[in-house]
Design a protein that fits this description.
The protein is of the alpha/beta class. It is built from eight helices and 15 strands. It is 23% helix and 27% strand. Strands 3, 4, 5, 6, 7, 14 and 15 form a seven-stranded mixed beta sheet that branches. It has a six-stranded parallel beta sheet with strand order 10-9-8-11-12-13, sandwiched between helices. The longest helix is centred in the middle third of the chain and has 13 residues. The radius of gyration is 20 Å and the shape is globular. 46% of the residues are buried. The mean pLDDT is 93.
Amino acid sequence: MDSHEVQLASCPDGAVEARNFRIETADVPELGPGLVLVRLRRLGLNAGLANRIGGPDTAYGPGIRPGDVPASDGVVEVLASRSNLFRQGDLAVRKSLWRSVDVAAAEELRRIPALEEDLPLEAHLTVLGHVGFTAYTGMMRFGGVQAADSVFVSGAAGGVGSCAVQFAKAVGATVVGSAGSAQKVRLLSELGADATFNHHDGAALDLLRAAAPEGIDLFYDNVGGEQLDAAMEMLRFGGRVVICGAASQYGKGGERRGPANYMRMIYRQLTMRGFDVTSNEDLRQDFEADANRWLRAGKIRSVHTVIDGFGRIPEAFASLLSGGNSGRMIVNCDG
């Protein structure tokens, strides 16, 4: 059976570009006991993966070097199985190598329940998937969001950010969201954000102060940099910061920095917490129950940008890093 894979061809000198990848023919391993043969149907791309290209090992995976095949979460269809856990035609989610057809241990797959099979495949990579679980973990467990909170989400039109906005609204919080284009700002309003701004329109502090003049209680950060500085200024006494990502720092080269005004944490008794979502699997059952209920009730929806064609994965990844997406960047690998 034919299979193809996307390999890193060269480490970028600056921003990651499509030309840093190549597509090669891949051998499909023999289907042994306990294994399943799967076809990649949808692939979700993550901006944070750029931080591992040519870089060190992290909690999310090893550094990626020329010749390596990256991996991210995908929806797969079982083509053949030598495991009693799956049968031909089953749909599942797994951390997938960027490979069109692959063999995997059955235990690596998380079955998509029959009651969810009527939902779009993309939803399993957004509000019901890893980015949704990331947003839920940061917002609920580490942010402790409450209905009385004023919440600021940076990078709010991205995959995780759009879920974070919707989850905070689902529990009744007031939400401010930032994004990088007029189109994305409109999307945030459609998702229920109470105030929005385009971070290109001025100084972040001025824009946030106009959007939340009375301050904020919780900052869910996907961007870092100037927006983190602004949030630190606007956090009320006892406010919380959850660090999920730092898109302003990815793949840029040069020195990376933290908040310039961190001493405000002392006299305002602020807390700042980063988290590793893979260490919070005990929360998944609560996430799936809440997300399914909110989705069925129309309180949340899948937000994604789809690019068609397995061969366009490098293009899609580069576009993601340059802000060419609303919601999760997903590649439709069918056909």
